[in-house]
Amino acid sequence: MIYTEDQIVKVNGVVLPGLVKSIEVKESAKIDEQEVEGSATKPKQATGYEDAKVNIELILDDTPTQTKYQRLETLRAIFRTPGQSVPKPIPIVSEATAAHGVDKVLFKSLSHKSENKKEQISVSLEFWEYVPTTIQTTSSSSGSSSGGGSSGRSSGGSSGGTQQQTSLTSDYQKYLQSSRGKSPAVDDAGTAAALDKVSQMPY
């Protein structure tokens, strides 16, 4: 996690080395300007808000135990741990960021600048507000239709059967209502006899 207090910053429990020169939090809106032919003014359309940006500036110098570049390596290890391929969202806690409603950030960039004849180097850290993307799941239309399709096919079959019955001859309707016995498929007769019974069935 990132923790700032009295210009002391911690990232994942590691105190950032050096002197915290400044902490800046910036919020901005998304506004599009429209080109209107023949007009000097550009109508503006608000479309939303940008993610907040957090910038921290540090001053690194040599200490009795570490050089300024060794301290810079500590920052780089925080920015990207060995084997890490994608930046991960990390919580941030500070009065400056809390005032803007920022509680999670992505470590966007790390840069340093050294000047001639100076034993210090300045380091810039940039964090972007992390806003998790909410994906709303809805039931699949194909799934619902397949569930309903089963009943739909059943009802369609009955309605189709009703339409067929209305067009049948009266003799065949009487046959359907009469006792027709067992199906040849489940009869005890042999194959030849079963086929003979099938051939004798009215159409």
List keywords for this structure.
203 residues, alpha+beta, 8-stranded mixed sheet, 5 helices, elongated
Structure in words:
This protein is of the alpha+beta class. 30% of the residues lie in helices and 30% in strands. The chain has five helices and ten strands; from the N terminus they run E-E-E-E-E-E-E-H-E-H-E-E-H-H-H. It has helices at residues 68-79, 95-98, 141-166, 170-177, 191-200, and strands spanning 2-5, 8-11, 14-15, 19-26, 29-33, 44-49, 53-60, 90-93, 104-114, 121-129. The strands form two sheets. The chain has an eight-stranded mixed sheet. It has a two-stranded antiparallel sheet with strand order 5-6. Strand 9 and strand 10 (121-129) form a beta hairpin. The radius of gyration is 39 Å and the shape is elongated. The model is unreliable at 144-165 (pLDDT under 50).
Q: What is the number of beta strands?
A: 10
The total of helices stands at: 5
Terminal CA distance:
82 Å
User: Helical proportion?
Assistant: 25-40%
Secondary-structure class:
alpha+beta
Strand content: 25-35%
The ordered H/E elements are EEEEEEEHEHEEHHH
Give the biggest sheet.
8 strands, mixed
Q: What is the gyration radius calculated from CA atoms?
A: 39 Å
Please state how the strands of the largest beta sheet are arranged side by side. 3-2-1-8-9-10-7-4
Please state the overall shape, judged from the principal axes of the Cα atoms: elongated
Low-pLDDT segments, ≥5 res: 144-165
Summed over residues and divided by their number, the pLDDT gives a mean of 75
